[in-house]
Amino acid sequence: MMATASPGQLRTLLALTLYLRLHGVYCKTIPTMNLSAAHSEEDISQLVEAIESSLLRMQQDGMLSY
C-alpha cells in the first residue's frame, strides 16, 4: 500500500498509528491489522472499538481529508 499511497494517505496512516496507540493498540509505523488464532473475541472487539474511536477522533481533529 505504501508504494501507491499519496503523501496525504501516508500522513493519514501514520496518524492512525498514533491514534490507535492512544487507544491501547500497538501497531508498527503503518497499521497492517494482522490477526491470528491467538487473538480472542475480546481482543478483536477491543480492536474494533479502538479503530472506530480513532477514526472518529481523527475526523473531529480534521485528520481525514477524504
SSE topology:
Elements: H1 7-22, H2 41-60
Helix pairs in contact: 1-2
Description:
This protein is mostly helical. It has helices at 7-22, 41-60. The longest helix is centred in the C-terminal third of the chain and has 20 residues, at 41-60. The model has no long low-confidence stretch (mean pLDDT 87).
Condensed summary:
55% of the residues lie in helices and 0% in strands. The protein has helices at 7-22, 41-60.
Task: Choose one word for the global shape.
Answer: globular
What is the C-alpha radius of gyration, as a whole number of Å?
A: 12 Å
Terminal Cα separation, in Å?
Answer: 17 Å
Order of helices and strands: HH
Helical amount: 40-55%
What is the number of strand segments?
0
Number of helices: 2
- pLDDT below 50 for ≥5 consecutive residues: which ranges? none
Oligomeric nature of the chains: single chain
Brief descriptors of the model:
globular, 2 helices, single chain, mainly alpha
